[in-house]
Amino acid sequence: MVGLDYGNARLRAMRSRLLSEADYDGLVAVESMDGLVAALATTAYAADLDAALPRFTGLRRFDEVVRHHLVRVLGALPRFYERPHDGIVGLLTDRWDLQNLRTIIRGASRLEAADEMLRMTVPIGRLGTAELSELAMQPSLRYVIDLMVAWRIPSRATAQAVRDAWPAYERSGDLVVLESALNRAFAKRLDEVLADDESAAAVALRSEVDEINLLTSLRLQTARAAGEVTRSDTEENHEFLTGGRIRPDTLTRAAATDDRPTAVSLLDGVRLVPGWSLALNDWAESDDLVALAEALRLASTRHAVGLFARGDPLGYDVPVAFVRAQEHEARNLRWIGRGIAHGLDRSAVESNVVVVR
C-alpha cells in the first residue's frame, strides 16, 4: 500500500466488475424478487448473496444484498491508500458517516426500533457497525447526541456542532436544524482539507456542496415567490454551506429574485458542472424542484465518473470516479428492486435506470 499508484490500479481493476448495460437488461427483464436475486448470482454481487439469503425474503433480501456489496466494496477503499483519512479518500468515505447519522437522528426522533434504523445505514466511513449499533440503541434522541459528544462521533468538531444546535432544535422541533449542523461541519472540514486544490477530484467533491447550496437557494426563491417568509430573511448566507465553488452572494441574489428565469440567469455562467445549465433552464420552465434535484445529481455523477477517462490516472480522480460509479449502481439497483416488487411495467423501470460507468 504505497501511494496512489497501488490504490488506483486496484480500483481500475475493480471497475470491470461494475454492472454493464447487458447486466441491467437482464435484471429489469425478470418478473419476481426471487428471479432478481437469482440474476445477481451471475454478477459481482454473487459474493454478497450469503449475507441475505438465510435471513430475509423479498425486497428486504434484495436490499440487503445491495447494501452488503456497497459496504464490502467501498469499505475496503481506504486500505488501498496511505493515510486515507487525511485527504480526499477520507472525504469520500466519510460522506457516509453523515448519511448514517442523519438516518439515526431521524429514527431516534420517531422512536424507531434499533434494527429498523440499522438496516438503513451503510457503515463505510469511520463509524463501523459497533458505533452505529450503540447510537441506534440509545433511548432517546438526546442520548444519541450526548453519546456523539462523549465518543467524539464522527469527530469532536462535528459532534460539538450538533450539540450546539440542540437548543435551537428543542425550540423548533425541526430536525433540519440538527441535519444542517452536520452538513455545515462536514462542509467546513471539506473546505479545510481541499484548501486551494483545484484538481478535478476536488472540483467533483465541491460540486456536492454546490448542489446542496443551489437547491437551497432555489427553494428559497420558490418560497418567496409564493409570498412565504423564510428563515433566511435576516441571515441570508447562513443558509449556505462553505466549501462550494458558487459564491454565497450569488446564491443569495438568486434566492431573492422575483422570477425563475432571473434566478437562472444569475447562476448560469458561473462555475457549474456540465449539464447543470440545461437542468436549470428546464426548472425555469417547469418549476419542478424534484426533477431539478434528480437532473443535478445525474449530471454531477456523469461528470465525476467521467474522470476515469479524462482524469489524472495517478491522482485522486480515480477513487472519486469509482466511488461515484459504485454509489450510482446501488441507486439503479434499488430502483429496479422497487419497480419489480411493486409490479411496475418494464418500461417504467428502465426509464429510471441510467447506466453510468
Cα(first) to Cα(last) distance is 25 Å
Percentage of residues in DSSP E strands: under 5%
Count the DSSP helices.
18
Shape: globular
Major beta-sheet overview: none
Q: How many beta-strand segments?
A: 0
Mean pLDDT: 92
How do the SSEs run, as a string of H and E? HHHHHHHHHHHHHHHHHH
Strand and helix layout:
Elements: H1 4-15, H2 21-28, H3 33-40, H4 58-75, H5 88-109, H6 114-118, H7 129-136, H8 141-151, H9 156-172, H10 175-194, H11 200-225, H12 248-255, H13 260-267, H14 276-286, H15 289-305, H16 307-310, H17 317-341, H18 346-350
Would you mind describing this structure in some detail?
- The protein has 357 residues and is mainly alpha-helical.
- Helix content is 65%, strand content 0%.
- It is globular.
